[in-house]
């Protein structure tokens, strides 16, 4: 009789524990669902900021040299951050200090080296190839997240990634798939893939960032980007390739510092915090599509059917990936 009472008590406790666990999972899933629309908005604005960077880069040709541009934009970011980041940085310093080396590496590789490699690659490969290699970034993010955190990837998420990648490749091919037949890959493409992997690793690393204010965390990243960009600017100067900014060049540097470098990166950090690196990374495929649209509006380039088709594919891919992401986080009863 006593054994039966204890058995009933154990069964009741076990069932209660399961119900409590399911309740917590449901609450977590509900919270993620509520956060998703805000993350989508932040990531869309981020993609607009980063796509504007491609237009700024085209306008900067002849107005300022590439490595000087990289260094000066981080100078302006650090100066702009200083009045606002000082207080949170002081408050979070004890938490940040044990992680300084890792955060500095994220800034050096994810910000400085990523941009430097893309500048170098652009001298050795075509715009079509750059578009293709950029499109594989979400795949790298999913793979690195799976290896590092064993993050599950659903079939619907992979379908979404493929749809978005197809959209970007459609823009890269300018609507003519036959262009891929004549593409020749070279060292520049390997450099681009290396740069893409660096930013994918940076994106996944954001998942395990210290529990501090985004502003203080980004301040350390920006500081590391500034310090590590100086040697590249110095090399450019020693090689005699430095072009000091013109009046237009300074305007572009300010725009690049405020939008792609400051606003875009801060919003991306927050979005990854809300929905994770895999789901946030897929939004990077909006960047080349938005860039094409901005080129039409700002640079007077032509708008073609494949721009609209690519945008549709990318949005469908994001929708499918989001549906798959929510399914992978759904609680299991029982």
Description:
This protein is mainly alpha-helical. It has one domain (38-328). It contains twelve helices and no strands. Helix 2 (66-96) packs antiparallel against helix 3 (100-122) and helix 6 packs antiparallel against helix 12. The longest helix has 59 residues, at 2-60. The relative contact order is 0.20.
Could you write a compact summary of the structure shown?
The chain has 334 residues and is an all-alpha fold. It has helices spanning 2-60, 66-96, 100-122, 127-135, 137-149, 155-172, 187-205, 214-238, 247-275, 277-281, 286-298, 305-328.
Question: How much helix is in the residues?
Answer: over 70%
Number of domains: 1
Sheet-strand content, in percent, reads under 5%
What is the assembly state of the chains in this entry? single chain
Task: Sketch the topology as an H/E string, one letter per element.
Answer: HHHHHHHHHHHH
N-end to C-end Cα span? 28 Å
- Put simply, the count of helices is 12
- Structural category is mainly alpha
Question: How are the SSEs placed, and which strands pair?
Answer:
Elements: H1 2-60, H2 66-96, H3 100-122, H4 127-135, H5 137-149, H6 155-172, H7 187-205, H8 214-238, H9 247-275, H10 277-281, H11 286-298, H12 305-328
Which features characterize this protein?
single chain; 334 residues; mainly alpha; 80% helix; globular; disordered C terminus
């Amino acid at each position: 009789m006593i054994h039966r009472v204890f058995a009933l008590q154990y069964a009741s406790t076990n069932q209660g524990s399961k119900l409590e666990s399911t309740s917590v999972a449901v609450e977590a899933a509900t919270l993620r669902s509520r956060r998703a629309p805000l993350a989508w908005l932040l990531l869309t604005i981020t993609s607009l900021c980063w796509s504007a960077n491609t237009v700024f880069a085209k306008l900067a040709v002849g107005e300022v040299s590439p490595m000087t541009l990289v260094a000066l934009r981080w100078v302006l970011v650090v100066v702009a951050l200083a009045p606002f980041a000082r207080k949170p940085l002081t408050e979070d310093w004890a938490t940040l200090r044990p992680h300084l080396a890792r955060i500095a590496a994220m800034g050096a590789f994810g910000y400085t080296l990523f941009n430097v490699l893309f500048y170098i690659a652009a001298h050795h490969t075509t715009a079509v190839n750059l578009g293709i290699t950029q499109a594989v970034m979400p795949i790298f993010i999913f793979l690195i997240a799976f290896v590092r955190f064993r993050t599950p990837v659903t079939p619907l998420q992979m379908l979404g990634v493929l749809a978005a990648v197809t959209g970007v490749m459609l823009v890269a091919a300018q609507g003519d798939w036959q262009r891929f037949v004549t593409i020749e890959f070279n060292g520049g493409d390997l450099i681009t893939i290396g740069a893409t992997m660096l930013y994918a690793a940076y994106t996944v690393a954001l998942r395990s960032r210290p529990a501090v204010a985004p502003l203080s965390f980004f301040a350390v990243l920006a500081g590391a980007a500034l310090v590590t960009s100086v040697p590249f600017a110095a090399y450019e100067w020693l090689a005699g390739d430095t072009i000091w900014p013109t009046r237009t060049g300074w305007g572009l540097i300010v725009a690049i510092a405020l939008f792609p470098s400051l606003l875009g990166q801060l919003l991306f950090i927050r979005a990854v915090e809300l929905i994770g690196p895999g789901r946030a990374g897929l939004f990077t495929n909006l960047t080349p599509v938005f860039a094409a649209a901005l080129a039409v509006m700002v640079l007077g380039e032509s708008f073609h059917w494949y721009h609209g088709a690519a945008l549709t594919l990318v949005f469908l891919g994001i929708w499918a990936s989001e549906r798959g992401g929510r399914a992978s986080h759904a609680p299991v009863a029982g």
